[in-house]
Amino acid sequence: MKYLEKTGLSKIFIIVFHLVGFVGFSIPHLHDFFISVVPFHLLLMAAILLMNQRDFSKNFWMGLVFIYLAGYGVEVVGVATGAIFGSYNYGETLGLKLAQVPLLIGVNWVILIFCVGAVLKKYFKHQRNIKSMLAALILVFIDFLIEPVAIKFDYWSWTDLFVPLQNYVAWYIVAFILMRVYYEIDFKKSNPVAMTLLISQVLFFIGLNVTAV
Question: Mind telling me which residue stretches traverse the membrane in this protein (predicted)?
Fold first, then answer.
């Protein structure tokens, strides 16, 4: 019963926070406040995802740390060189930076990889390459939705003022590698709020693409 209560409350929190965020980002005079709480929103979603994780084994923590460091590391190289995603720079919305990259960007990678990974875990059970390829496609689609919103609200900006094709190709490759590692590490990948969080994020960015961009 306690488990069901925690899961149910977690799903309600996820939906409500995304709805409130959507309203806030859709109303111009509320932009500054809602932009200021973006880092706290990301941390809250990561905490809710973590609270509902069913496996806290050594392998789980290894996977989480690897995804965080790899996701953050590739962004550091990307910003410094422009050779991975194209030429871009992070704004102030995502908070504290190290090497010109917000520390929270690794958290964002963790949320995306663990959500998509948990949702797809029961499909193509013994075909990890196919599962990782599909997951990478989903992640590229999510990035496609995020880009216009991120540019408008100073998450990051592109030097040439448009998103290069290189970004989506690199996103697919990086996402595939991270998903492949995720599925290779042996831990229980079930998470009862992963689907709710993933759908809420997708609908949030679709809505903002329609109303605020």
Answer: 12-27, 33-51, 63-86, 98-120, 132-153, 165-183, 195-212
Please compute the mean of the pLDDT values over residues 16-35 and round it to a whole number: 93
Q: How far is CA 31 from CA 26, 36, 69, 118, in A?
A: 8, 9, 31, 32
Domain that holds residue 176: 2-211
Q: Is the separation of the CB atoms in 172 and 143 below 8 Å?
A: no
89 forms bridges with which residues in the sheet?
Answer: 157
CA torsion, ordered 205, 84, 71, 183, to nearest 10 deg = 90
Q: Does pLDDT of 205 surpass 70?
A: yes
Q: How far is CA 127 from CA 49, 59, 85, 183, in A?
A: 25, 20, 28, 10
- What is the value of pTM for the model shown? 0.93
The rounded distance, in Å, linking the Cα atoms of 106 and 111 is 9
User: With 80 as the cut, is the pLDDT of residue 194 above it?
Assistant: yes
**Tokens 């910003």 correspond to what residue?**
79
